[in-house]
Amino acid sequence: LESIKxxxxxxIAAVGWEGVRAFDVSNPxxxxxxxxxxxxxxxxxxxxxxxxYAYLANEWGGLKVIxxxxxxxxxxxxxxxxxLNYNSRSIDIFDNYAYLAGNKPEGAVLSIIxxxxxLSPxxxxxxxxxxxxxxxxxxxxxxxxxxGSGSDGVRIISPQTVLGxxxxxxxxxxxxxxxxxxxxxxxxxxxxxGMTVDAAGTV
Length: 203
Description:
Blueprint: E1 3-7, E2 10-14, E3 20-24, E4 32-37, E5 45-48, E6 53-57, E7 63-67, E8 75-80, E9 87-94, E10 97-104, E11 107-114, E12 122-129, E13 137-141, E14 144-148, E15 154-157, H1 159-162, E16 170-172
Antiparallel strand pairs: 1-2, 2-3, 3-4, 5-6, 6-7, 7-8, 9-10, 10-11, 11-12, 13-14, 14-15, 15-16
């Protein structure tokens, strides 16, 4: 089990090489298996929109879009695979865009994909960073993508950087502590513990 998301009275789960599975949780005391769908690669993560589509980070299969409007019978809707050419590990969506993170032998990659038409997603642009660590988690909030990169820590990436309109990628290592002790702001990234990160990414 790699990732789960709630969709109405169902839980949609990314289950690695077994693809995607749906579970009816309308009665939490008696969870029932619902629909399932295999994909051609390992499903590491998924995100769900309000239209009833699930977007999968599908390893070297890239982005897969699954119609889950009927969770009892999920079906393939669209995708973007060969043109990405990297190992997709995490995904988040915001408005009409998907933020897909992963890695290739040369480094880590973050892509912005237009999903305004879920049946025909289109690559907007990608940012590649030379690192030995994969991008294994992406969350989009406050108009920035927060990307986990193993022992490299966290990188905060603006969509403008991916589009080549800005140069800065803010990077910093997070100390191994209780995450609840920290609250971050984007004005220099400060924490309740007094750690401050400047624009160059230096702690």
